[in-house]
Known about the structure:
Chain A is 72% helix and 0% strand. By secondary structure, chain A is mainly alpha-helical. The longest helix of chain A is centred in the C-terminal third of the chain and has 29 residues, at 192-220.
Amino acid sequence: xxxxxxxxxxxxxxxxxxxxxxxxxxxxxxxxxxxxxxxxxxxxxxxxxxxxxxxxxxxxxxxxxxxxxxxxxxxxxxxxxxxxxxxxxxxxxxxxxxxxxxxxxxxxxxxxxxxxxxxxxxxxxxxxxxxxxxxxxxxxxxxxxxxxxxxxxxxxxxxxxxxxxxxxxxxxxxxxxxxxxxxxxxxxxxxxxxxxxxxxxxxxxxxxxxxxxxxxxxxxxxxxxxxxxxxxxxxxxxxxxxxxxxxxxxxxxxxxxxxxxx
Amino acid sequence: xxxxxxxxxxxxxxxxxxxxxxxxxxxxxxxxxxxxxxxxxxxxxxxxxxxxxxxxxxxxxxxxxxxxxxxxxxxxxxxxxxxxxxxxxxxxxxxxxxxxxxxxxxxxxxxxxxxxxxxxxxxxxxxxxxxxxxxxxxxxxxxxxxxxxxxxxxxxxxxxxxxxxxxxxxxxxxxxxxxxxxxxxxxxxxxxxxxxxxxxxxxxxxxxxxxxxxxxxxxxxxxxxxxxxxxxxxxxxxxxxxxxxxxxxxxxxxxxxxxxxx
Lengths: 262, 262
């Protein structure tokens, strides 16, 4: 937890490096999980495309165009190239199966794409919201654990994650909303209400991220994605929620700052 | 061919409807192809997300923000939601396999996402470039056929597409470049050089789209994606190149008009 707090405190290039590492180790673990059921996405394509996506951060913003939009444009171009290269990976029909191409595409548009939003949040004028991502992801998990421990009766997803209860989920969402609100109240008071909403929506997204990772792990026949952090599994076991929350928080910030202009 | 010319001539909402239909029938055929090898992406999710992507066209542009950028922002949000929902489809671990989620994601970020760029091109100030998409996709194919017929000696991709030759590919690229240049010279003279380049790059992208569709069809054990157009196969058999060329042309236009600001 301590290194995470340091990364969030410094932000900027420190956060960028941390997010890049999460994305790289994340795709590695995800691809390795597929290997376990004899599906072989291209790790090499995933690594190269992950680095390329993160490098778009250093394209200087033009004077007339808001940085947000330039990020989006570069991300869209990246998305097209990533999908196209993933599909092209399937051309070697004698060596590869159609799954191998589809899972290469999925690995890229899931892990690096989602994770990259952490660095996008950090570049907005509301960079403190990066803390809300972590509060929503870990807060909802911790509050759900304790609420479920004391009050849990009804199983939420018996096949997928047998320990989770509906009572726990509700407690997790209430806890993360209040915690996010408190953070907002202390550090950016005019945004406290927004933080409350993000604690709720982000908490739900975090649970979705957790269940998604659980579903893949079960189908891949593995308990954990890795063992990088002793006792905590791999990067994807720890950050499965965080990477799902980051895009939600980022696009809410976009709506707030009016640049969505809907 | 005639209905296609009418669609390109009118552009606007006519092109939007045509592109939406291509995307909808395209994902349908792609999912059906997967069914053939017992993989079951969610057609329903693909349909709904395709319609949602195309509906972003009707979000009014704000005064201060260029329409291009707003499109990109909405597309990025769509991309996140599409990937997330595709992954969530895998939660029902007792009924579905991990492939089913990955192929649902792949279907969406491949077919509707690529196809949507046709409508984006139509909304720029260089809407005539939509013709270049078709010229590059079909022109390279036709010129490759005739060049290969008369001069073809060296097989290009014997397993994937046994009739294609290297001589044919070179002839196809030269032909589509010259044809695109001629179109530019007649209809938008100051852009003739750009058209030449797009004929070359777009022609190559079209061949990549064709080979990608071939690879999937072979792995799926089908000859054609469908039989919608008698004697021509399905929509994906006809438009596999077009949907690969559209993003390439769109992003080159973006670079041209300076909005990439790199």
